[in-house]
Amino acid sequence: MVQSGGKCLLISTHHLPLVGGALTVYDALARYGVGRIEILTASHDYHSGEEVAGWREFDAHAGYIIHRLSALRVGKGISPRSNPLQWLKLSLTSRLVRKRVLRAVRTLLSDGGYSCLCIGDMGFLGWIANHKKILGGIRIVQYVHGEEVSQQAHSARAEKARRAILDKVDGIITVSRFTADILIEKGVAPDKILVSHNGVDLNRFTGVLPPNARSDLDLPLGPLVFSLGRLVARKGFDTLIEAWPFVLEKIPNASLIIGGIGMEEQALKGQVQALNLQRNITFLGAVSEECLARYYGAADVFALPNRTMPDGETEGFGLVFLEAAAMATPSVGGRAGGAVEAIVNGETGFLVTPTSPKEIAEAICRLLQDDGLRSQMGQAARLHAEQNGWHEKVQAFLAFTADAQALTGLKSDTLVQGDRPDLGVKSQNEKTL
């Protein structure tokens, strides 16, 4: 039975302790939701098929209920033309996984107390919206970060399936006005959309830097720029590296540290070697959650010249810019996608043409060379972050997932106008099913 003002079950293909911006958002929603939001996710990484290291310990200390299946999706697809037998095996496995997921959702929702199911991965879990009737007519909301709709679908059939999901769900939460506009262009009714910019955890990103932070992290003491994200093309790491010789012309001792892992890692490291920048650019690999705030705060500038790819893939918002801001560090970001809503241009940092290494370098040098400007923008960035904490975001999320009309009066986030089967692996703090 659907209960007004009840709990929300948020389903995602993966979750912390794996790394990802969307995962950070869902973790924050659940923690600040104080028992009103539960997570259904996987105990195994769909990329590798291996069990996620440390998930039991994470779940035991998360502070909210996490339900886990071994998997909620299969790995990367295979073309039926390239390998028909493997494609058939993958298809059959995918159907089996979907049956298990649907059974798990029905089992959880049948306990009562839920007013909504929020789908956190449109591409691989949006199909659940097709089963609304057998889920008891519960309100279903789709969370859209950006690239799921900005990136061109791989086929007309895929685009049709995407559009069908948007039609069937009761509401859509987007992380930026940029994403909302794309949805409206696709024919989604404006009053079906809630624009909710990502929030920042002010209890974690306090704006206070511990003494000797750089030495503790073994960082250089000169001018320092930090960059962070999945090492993929749309993040613009290659252009940032290309900009570094221009930075060194003005600031010879400037250092760049890059955190993150991804498919472009070897290519980026090769680029650094080709430009003979090994002394000035360091790759950190995956950055632990415990150290992240210190990296942001220890840096003089945060830079990520994100860009829009030819197929439309782009940054839906850019949580990293808000995290840097919370640590009073100004940002340099690409004028693309939703990043234009994460950085207040000229106040909390600079937006630049993401394909121009010289423009990127000029913005970075301007901040590194002007202590007064950097301090001023850092203070403004912190104030901006303080206005985007999670308490108000969660209030809007819970109101919208229960009933869109309940959002009336909220200021921080806005509706755009116009027999119990075993679920498999269970979290240590999961209720008994």
UniProtKB/TrEMBL annotation:
InterPro entries: Glyco_trans_1, Glyco_trans_4-like_N, Glycosyltransferase_grp1. It holds the Pfam family Glycos_transf_1. Residues 223-382 form the Glycosyl transferase family domain. The keyword Transferase applies. Coiled coil: none annotated. Its EC number is 2.4.-.-. This is Glycosyltransferase family 4 protein. The lineage of its organism: Bacteria, Pseudomonadati, Pseudomonadota, Alphaproteobacteria, Kordiimonadales. GO terms for molecular function: glycosyltransferase activity. It comes from Kordiimonas pumila. Residues 75-204 form the Glycosyltransferase subfamily 4-like N-terminal domain. SUPFAM superfamilies: UDP-Glycosyltransferase/glycogen phosphorylase. Keywords: Glycosyltransferase, Transferase.
